[in-house]
Amino acid sequence: GIVLVAINPYEQLPIYEQDVIYAYSGQNMGDMDPHIFAVAEEAYKQMARDEKNQSIIVSGESGAGKTVSAKYAMRFFATVGGSASETNIEAKVLASSPIMEAIGNAKTTRNDNSSRFGKYIQIGFDKRYHIIGANMRTYLLEKSRVVFQAEDERNYHVFYQLCASANLPEFKDLGLSKCS
């Protein structure tokens, strides 16, 4: 199948707006320029035509924008499925595990707030192809970061937050009073 490769342009571009979603909706793959929405439209069309589950693999280097690319694909599905204004599903899915995100982000040489998780997102559709729910599973990619960081990189943010808060009375029972 098709693999989407995320490449971060390092600036916001006006290529993910509502009018661009509508421009790609109903188009065949290859009729327009390569785009996240072209990949999403192809998966959506095949799901409706074949009545079979579809997958989009989003690949790219650290900091390339894989999570943002998944967000844009979900926005596309919500818009073409008629549920964007009703549910804002992509925001709900991506905000579904803020504790995991806080624990799993670290500073890397390419990104000050890079997620160190892989994500598997399942989106459920009804018979009219409207989004009816979603589920996100995360898995830790870098267990080694707990004990080792490359030069100019940091451990998970949560460790620094815990150390900065170690003097709070709530932390006495956690044994975090001697952080250095």
UniProtKB/TrEMBL annotation:
Going by the UniProt record, its keywords in alphabetical order are: Actin-binding, ATP-binding, Motor protein, Myosin, Nucleotide-binding
According to its UniProt entry, the protein's GO biological process terms are: actin filament organization
> Does the entry feature the keyword ATP-binding, yes or no?
yes
Q: Name the InterPro entries on file.
A: Kinesin_motor_dom_sf, Myosin_head_motor_dom-like, P-loop_NTPase
GO CC annotation: cytoplasm; membrane; myosin complex
The chain positions of domain Myosin motor read 1-180
* MF-aspect GO terms: actin filament binding; ATP binding; microfilament motor activity
Q: Please tell me where ATP binds in this chain.
A: G60, E61, S62, G63, A64, G65, K66, T67
List the Gene3D superfamilies hit by this protein, alphabetically: Kinesin motor domain (3.40.850.10)
PROSITE patterns assigned to the protein according to its UniProt record, in alphabetical order: MYOSIN_MOTOR
Name the family: Belongs to the TRAFAC class myosin-kinesin ATPase superfamily. Myosin family.
The protein's name in its UniProt record:
MYO5B protein
**Species of provenance:** Penelope pileata
| Gene this chain is encoded by | Myo5b_2
